[in-house]
């Protein structure tokens, strides 16, 4: 077991790996009632394409598998956890399937149940057929979520063939191809201890967590971690413009800029770059910037406005989103701002943005669930969150200037309108 | 964690000392009787006050200042609680021992918070027209955005039918149709009225000595004496001969079902605790009778849950259903309700519901906001300090018969369905 201590935050992270390869991270929070336990599996929608020499799975397999493990009729997981005073949940993302519970009672019995449910599923044809209907309805419900839809449209327009553009739940057609054989094969390949990460945040004894996981029958086999695919991607977006008609009162606008990938940067470097982008956006059109106030005054953007960058090893992009009454004028004004970004970097504002981000990181240690969520993200990437918080302070204006060439409005950009 | 009430000039200060958090959290509440005539004024007021102060006159300068103070957060808004319109402001600031170099920010943050309330940006003795216009537009867009959220939209439509002749019909968030009628003068008048007449309370959660906090607050906040006596529950109701059934159409792929029940048990009642358990058992958890039956057993809906509006005396059931199946789902929901009222649940079901309620109570004390709302709400209604262990014991003591009695007390008022088709 290794221990990292942050002098600034007065917080501790304890890390260990079981003999079967399961990675464990514990963040003790004395005095808190709630304990949250995550068992994250390194299998998400972008893994469904498969790797060289190994066949892939239909779109939506990772999500379907998550449903099967937790819709297990005989076990009825929600009720079984509720009897132990725990509330259980799961989600599937692009790169991970995460199973977790929170409790204000003893964590051990619920953790025992979680480990067994995730590693020893009973996947039967009848259950798969039933679940297919539920997932089809879920996919249909996403069709009512206007914010999700525009993001999905943007990803589809940006990416030619990278699976990040695939809807995580799959489509009605792709889930039709999923049966118990597919699900069992995916489980065998990805649900192995070396491809899992256990995270515990709460008023717990780290030694007890490690001892329990080490001895647990769920993590006996030491199978190797499956290969991770790294995909190349054409630098041009699949489409430069998409317009859709929707039943909404405010039009929605989303701009995207695609980065060159893959890169050989480490995850830590990518995370620092994401933060540098956030500082750049803050100076350019953050809510405290003259540009943002100007855009609001002209009625081009509203409070929903946001800009983020995502930097992953094999995909990366910028997304700028707003609700607007004048979508074409708003798109034009935003592109123009990109062109003038070089002149908008202000030292004083940059320092303020840094302080705010440091403050926000400190604040997130107030909440067990917020903390578990973001620490898990970093731990999965092997990034030390304490190091990252220290790195924020070291970002300079020159680091931001170095990003600017990537903003040039050229063939890498896409715009999506919903009106 | 124990709270203490300290009377200061014109208001009560509630202190909750704890070392669990990285932040100090302050909430200031102004409560006045909820009236239709002042609804828009009070909806806009917190946003206008947050849009600029004397020393930080624009949103940009204000936000800049917050960022300088290591991401200090100052927020505000309006809500309805019982018969009251409550304007609240909150401050969350990182304690200096967790900042690089121990940067001193608490006093500065408190100064800024004080400025929001007492020193707004003025123009010829009132608020600036342009500032008001911006806030009206943003509030209007916020209200319009609810239209895109089909669950929220259908709930509002149901509430408008159910509470047609009652105060509860009006949303504190604002009335879109009359929003343009607000003038800078009327808004200034509402602001003066808030400072002069509203019932005021403040809660502070954090890790410091009482003396330090009391001195810091006393130096910055004082109000003249006032007579407003808050009424925290809304007992207005109507005679119900038979339930109302309403169907409306819109562009939805899933039908949205909203059912409104009246209940006589409200916050502050001795039966409140058994009502919490009854509601958790009925529909307010993913192990509830509704979820297990309507969703898991019969696959009639994607989601279904109930919510207990304790200050009003109502329980709302919301569900997303396949178009054409909403009435079937509504009948099933009501039959489950009757079944629970007749004792159709096990001791284990009861135990699970109690655990869910207890878990919520415990984890509320894991966040400053949760502490403020539970602690303050409790001593407002019961006139004694919040007692987590005592309340957990009360939940533990709830019997099967009490839950049956609570469920038997539901009166079906309105069944509303928003389904596919031309509006």
What string gives the helices and strands of chain B in order? Answer: EEEHHEEHHHHEHEEHHEEHHHHHE
Find the count of extended strands of chain B (DSSP E, 2+ residues): 11
Low-confidence spans of chain A: none
Tally of DSSP helical segments of chain A: 15
Biggest sheet overview of chain A: 7 strands, mixed
Instruction: Using the coordinates above, name the CATH class of the largest domain in chain A.
Output: Alpha Beta
Order of helices and strands of chain A: EEEEHHEEHHHHHEHEEHHEEHHHHHE
Structural class of chain B: alpha+beta
Counted up, domains of chain A total 2
The total beta strand count of chain A reads 12
Helix tally of chain B? 14
CATH superfamily of the largest domain in chain A: Metalloenzyme, LuxS/M16 peptidase-like
Spans of chain B of at least 5 consecutive residues whose pLDDT stays below 50 are: none
CATH class of the largest domain in chain B: Alpha Beta
What is the average of the pLDDT values of chain A?
Answer: 90
Shape of chain B: globular
Instruction: Please name the fourth-level CATH homologous superfamily of the largest domain in chain B.
Output: Metalloenzyme, LuxS/M16 peptidase-like
Query: In CATH terms, what is the architecture of the largest domain in chain A?
Result: 2-Layer Sandwich
Any guess at the CATH architecture of the largest domain in chain B? 2-Layer Sandwich
Rounded to an integer, what's the Rg of chain A over CA atoms? 23 Å
Strand count, sense and barrel status of the largest sheet of chain B are: 6 strands, mixed
List keywords for this structure.
heterodimer, A: 419 residues, alpha+beta, Cytochrome Bc1 Complex, Chain A, domain 1, 2 domains, seven-stranded mixed sheet, 15 helices, 12 strands, B: 423 residues, five-stranded mixed sheet, 22% strand
């Amino acid at each position: 077991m290794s221990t990292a201590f942050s002098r600034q935050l007065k917080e501790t992270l304890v890390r260990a790996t079981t003999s079967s390869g399961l990675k464990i991270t514990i963040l003790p929070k004395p005095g808190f009632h709630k304990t949250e336990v995550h068992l994250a599996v390194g299998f998400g929608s972008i893994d469904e394409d498969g790797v060289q020499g190994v066949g892939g799975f239909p779109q939506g397999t990772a999500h379907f598998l998550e449903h099967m493990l937790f819709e297990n009729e005989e076990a009825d997981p929600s009720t079984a956890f509720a009897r132990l005073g725990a509330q259980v949940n799961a989600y599937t993302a692009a790169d991970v399937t995460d199973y977790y519970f929170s409790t204000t009672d003893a964590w051990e019995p619920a953790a025992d149940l979680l480990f067994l449910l995730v590693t020893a599923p009973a996947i039967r044809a009848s259950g798969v057929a039933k679940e297919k209907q539920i997932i089809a309805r879920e996919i249909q419900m996403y069709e009512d979520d206007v914010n999700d839809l525009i993001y999905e449209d943007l990803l589809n327009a940006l990416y030619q063939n990278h699976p990040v553009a695939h809807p995580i739940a799959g489509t009605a057609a792709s889930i039709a191809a999923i049966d118990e054989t597919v699900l069992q094969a995916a489980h065998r390949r990805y649900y192995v201890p070396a491809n899992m990460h256990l995270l515990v945040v709460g008023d717990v004894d780290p030694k007890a967590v490690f001892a329990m996981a080490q001895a647990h029958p769920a993590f006996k086999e030491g199978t190797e971690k499956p290969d991770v695919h790294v995909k190349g991607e054409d630098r041009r977006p699949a489409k430069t413009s998409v317009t859709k008609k929707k039943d909404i009162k405010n039009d929605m606008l989303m701009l995207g800029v695609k980065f060159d990938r893959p890169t050989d940067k480490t995850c830590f470097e990518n995370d620092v770059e994401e933060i540098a982008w956030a500082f750049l956006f803050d100076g350019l059109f953050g809510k405290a910037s003259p540009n943002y106030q100007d855009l609001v005054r002209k009625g081009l953007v509203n409070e929903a406005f946001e800009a983020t960058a995502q930097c992953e090893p094999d995909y990366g992009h910028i997304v700028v989103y707003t609700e607007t009454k004048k979508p074409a004028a708003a798109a034009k004004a935003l592109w123009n701002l990109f062109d003038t970004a070089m002149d908008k970097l202000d030292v004083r504002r940059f320092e303020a943005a840094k302080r705010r981000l440091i403050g926000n990181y400190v604040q997130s240690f107030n909440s067990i669930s917020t903390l578990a969520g973001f620490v898990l993200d970093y731990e999965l990437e092997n990034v030390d969150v304490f190091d990252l918080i220290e790195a924020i302070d070291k970002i300079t204006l020159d680091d931001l200037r170095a990003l600017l060439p990537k903003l040039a409005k050229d063939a890498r950009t896409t715009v999506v309108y919903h009106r | 964690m124990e709270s203490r009430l300290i009377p200061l000039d014109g208001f009560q200060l509630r202190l909750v000392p704890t070392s669990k958090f990285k932040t100090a959290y302050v909430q200031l509440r102004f409560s006045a009787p909820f009236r239709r005539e002042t609804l828009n004024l009070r909806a806009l007021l917190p946003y206008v006050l947050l849009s600029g102060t004397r020393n930080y006159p624009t949103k940009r300068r204000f936000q800049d200042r917050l960022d300088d103070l290591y991401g200090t957060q100052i927020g505000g808004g309006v809500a309805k609680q019982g018969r009251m319109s409550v304007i609240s402001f909150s401050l969350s600031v990182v304690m200096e021992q967790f900042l690089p170099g121990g940067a001193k920010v608490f006093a500065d943050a408190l100064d800024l918070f004080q400025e929001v309330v007492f020193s707004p940006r003025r123009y010829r003795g009132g608020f600036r027209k342009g500032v008001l216009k911006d806030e009206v537009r943003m509030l209007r867009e916020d209200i319009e955005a609810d239209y895109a959220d089909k669950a929220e939209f259908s709930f509002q439509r149901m509430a408008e039918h159910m509470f047609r002749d009652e105060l509860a019909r009006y949303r504190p968030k604002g009335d879109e149709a009359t929003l343009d009628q607000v003038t800078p003068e009327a808004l200034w008048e509402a602001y003066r009225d808030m400072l002069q007449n509203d019932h005021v309370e403040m809660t502070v959660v954090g890790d410091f000595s009482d003396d330090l906090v009391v001195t810091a607050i006393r130096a910055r906040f004082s109000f003249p004496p006032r007579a407003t006596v808050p009424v925290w529950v809304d007992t207005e109701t109507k005679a119900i001969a038979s339930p109302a059934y309403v169907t409306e159409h819109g562009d939805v792929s899933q039908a949205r079902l909203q059912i409104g029940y009246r209940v006589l048990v409200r916050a502050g009642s001795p039966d409140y605790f058994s009502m919490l358990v009854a509601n958790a058992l009925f529909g307010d958890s993913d192990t509830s009778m509704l979820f297990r039956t309507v969703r898991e057993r019969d696959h009639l809906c994607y989601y279904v849950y109930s919510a207990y509006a304790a200050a009003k005396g109502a329980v709302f059931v919301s569900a997303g259903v396949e178009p054409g199946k909403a009435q079937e789902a509504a009948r099933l929901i009501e039959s489950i309700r009757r079944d629970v009222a007749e004792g159709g649940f096990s001791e284990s079901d009861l135990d699970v519901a109690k655990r869910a309620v207890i878990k919520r109570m415990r984890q509320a004390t894991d966040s400053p906001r949760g502490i403020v709302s539970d602690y303050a709400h409790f001593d407002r209604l019961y006139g004694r300090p919040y007692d987590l262990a005592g309340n957990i014991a009360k939940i533990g003591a709830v019997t099967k018969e009490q839950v049956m009695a609570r469920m038997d007390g539901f009166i079906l008022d309105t069944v509303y369905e928003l389904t596919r088709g031309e509006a």
